[in-house]
Amino acid sequence: MIRPVTFEPLAQRQIRALAPPDRAALSEVLLDLAGAADPMTVVDPYLPGGIGPLPFHGVVLTDSAEAVVTLYLDHVRVVAVRPRHCPLP
Question: Rounded to whole angstroms, how far apart are CA atoms 69 and 82?
């Protein structure tokens, strides 16, 4: 099952500001997240208070951008996007 991906207005503006190759790379990773059987394998999770498995916040990383996402049982919400200044190891 592929979960729908929704964007907060801020994230929409921020993703439009990325260079086209960076936007494409981030879009590919978000699609991987949306279709993942176990989303925890795609994001770096942040579980405040350890309350339940979902919803939770995580960060999706590419070589050139990162996105803060909230995972729900039925969809993925992109909260914010920003360029990365240091490449992944």
Answer: 12
